[in-house]
Amino acid sequence: MASVLAQTSPEPATIHSLFAVPGMHCAGCIAKVERGLADVPGIVSARVNYSAKRVAIEHDRALSPPDLRNAIAGIGFAAEPLADPMVDDGNAESGTLLKALAVAGFASMNVMLLSVSIWSGADGATRALFHWLSALIALPTVAYAGQPFFRSAFAALRVGRTNMDVPISIGVLLATGMSLYETITGGRHAWFDGAVMLLTFLLAGRWLDGAMRGKARDGVAALLRQTAPGAYVLEAGQRSWVATPNLAPGMMMQVAAGERFAADGEIRDGRSSIDLSFLTGESQPQAVSIGDMVHAGALNVDGPLTVIVRACGPDTVIADIARMMDAAAQGKSRYVRIADRAARIYAPAVHLLAALSFAGWMLGGAGIHQSLLIATAVLLITCPCALGLAVPAAQVVACGALMRQGILVKDGSALERLAEADRVIFDKTGTLTLGRPEPTNLASLTLEDKPIVLALARASRHPLSIALAGALQSQGIVEAIVSDMVEVPGVGMRGKCDDHPVALERPSGTTAWTGLATEFSTGSNRVLLTFADALRPDAVATTAQLRAMGLEPIIASGDRPQALHDIALATDMLATGRMTPQAKLAMIERLKAQGHRVLMVGDGLNDGPALAAGHVSLAPSSASDVSQLAADAVFLGDSLAPVAIAVRAARRTLAVMRQNFALAIGYNVLAVPLAIAGMVTPLLAALAMSGSSIIVVANALRLRSAAK
Amino acid sequence: MIGLTVLIPIALLLGTMGLVAFFWAVRAGQFDDPDGAALRILNDED
């Protein structure tokens, strides 16, 4: 196969594929995956990236993604294919910034060394030599490391706007130009150190911002599963692999157990159950057979299915919902971050100030050279060094603290928006509740019965058995020895314990029960175990805390109003039932029109548009993939407490950002009059600049305990 | 002055070498998987 391809196309015979393997935990796992894959025929090499929980595989073109997935499964790890490994914009940007930061850092240290000698009294030829050396280092540095700012400033100016990068660029370029003139004419002061140091501090802020976003994005991506990259298609008796973009309606897909559907379709052959958790967030598989519709992205759990493709690509249900969410997210992308809002006022003020001081000194008869020097000093002193660090430093520290608590914030602006929220809408199933059955009357089992129940429950994969086993294990119960265990399909588990027949079965007709239940029997003794979708731990306390913080909570659910009654009472919230995705969207729009800012917390696909439309949104990690993508932050674990923690941390972050702004402005109020009066020397500028930066970073570090 | 003309180029050269080493490290992927590198050292046969 490879040789045929090599003849027909100049492309290499091997290709790279990327898989997410979230189950790797130790050095042994890395070795196992890499060596295990290297032994598979057709695989050239495999390299694990443990930080991102991914494995990159170089393999023969003949191997399809399901083959590779099965190979990884054969080693004992669950894996999901990831999109094209070449598309990784965030990392590339972060790499560029890191290199620019390294160059700027190197240059500022060297230039500073030379500047310190000049300030200590170097004179005459030595001073001229040091100025020339500084110029030699600083000019290429400004040209290279200043690019991110120049580009952004140019882009803003071209559309007639101004941002934080405009005063930065003008300040740096003017300072460098003036210094070069001073150096050529043998003047007393050169500002190379100030210009380069400014770039270093600002690049540090920019890089921190990018690195934090990248880390959270990786965390969320590791949780995400992807839709299928393609499917095996039956055509005239031939079975061939077709990639998702090439699928067309009418094709017959063969989908094995454990694979995802690549397109919407109708089952033509086979019987299985499918996991729709990517759509609904509900993990209980649904039984399907001939004639049923399946959706792209759903997981085939039990048996092989033959499916005729009805809709693919942009026509699938999932693509439809994605479009709806894109439209709803428009409002969010219009949000202007605090730093940019500050820049809109700050930048023109700074330019006006510099221009006025230039004009003032000209009128005072100081001559064009000295007036320009003073204007440069004003620009350099007012450059938003502290501002550029004030916001990212606070966000990075706060997001790091939240990440340690299991809250992954995807975007720095999410914290700002979270702090502004004044209404919170909860979905019910899967958000306020756990979205899975939990036993409600374990106390009715005796201490002797519990180990037997655990043994029976652990032998079955039924959702109720899994819930039962989990609950008993968390009580510290050790399973009893049960022999002759058999699982009777549709009925339950049977076995023998000390020669007594024991069973865990579907409740018999005499004990009619409407909800979820199972019946445990030893001999003639029967105990009915009931299950309910339990409220998340801390749900009541969390909603009370949110209310105390001024966020009025509301429940919006697609469920029947009767099902909401108990939860609404327990959490003392207003609840609305039978809401469609459109109705949830309308509810948010209505609140927006009233001037409220809505925090949406939801998990199902039906919450996707609402999550995208909310001022800010949170999703549990058990949520559907779509919801995790739409939400601004994802929280791990069963507890609802992270919602309150995140809001509290966001408000503290906003407070610290405001303090940092106040500090930066206070420093300007002190330093600018000196600059206008022409009393700022390069030494004073360097001291003021680094001093103010250290203060704002130190203030931001206080947020390390923000997520407590 | 003689000392300066010798020492300053040496200082700059050493600094540039550090910078070049850092660029090489970034390009060679030394920072791609910091957690994995810490664990790989525990694998005997690599």
Give the arrangement of secondary structure elements.
The complex is a heterodimer of chains A (708) and B (46).
Chain A: H1 2-8, E1 14-20, H2 27-38, E2 43-49, E3 54-60, H3 65-75, E4 80-81, H4 89-119, H5 124-145, H6 147-158, H7 165-185, H8 192-223, E5 230-235, E6 238-243, E7 252-255, E8 264-269, E9 272-275, H9 277-280, E10 286-288, E11 293-294, E12 299-300, E13 305-311, H10 317-328, H11 330-333, H12 338-363, H13 368-382, H14 385-404, E14 407-409, H15 412-420, E15 423-426, H16 428-432, E16 433-439, H17 449-458, H18 463-474, E17 483-488, E18 492-497, E19 500-505, E20 516-522, E21 525-535, H19 539-548, E22 552-556, H20 561-571, E23 574-576, H21 581-593, E24 598-601, H22 608-613, E25 616-620, H23 625-630, E26 633-635, H24 641-676, H25 682-701
Parallel strand pairs in A: 15-22, 15-24, 22-23, 24-25, 25-26
Antiparallel strand pairs in A: 1-3, 1-4, 2-3, 5-6, 5-7, 7-13, 8-11, 8-13, 9-10, 9-12, 14-26, 16-21, 17-18, 18-19, 19-20, 20-21
Chain B: H1 2-27, H2 34-40
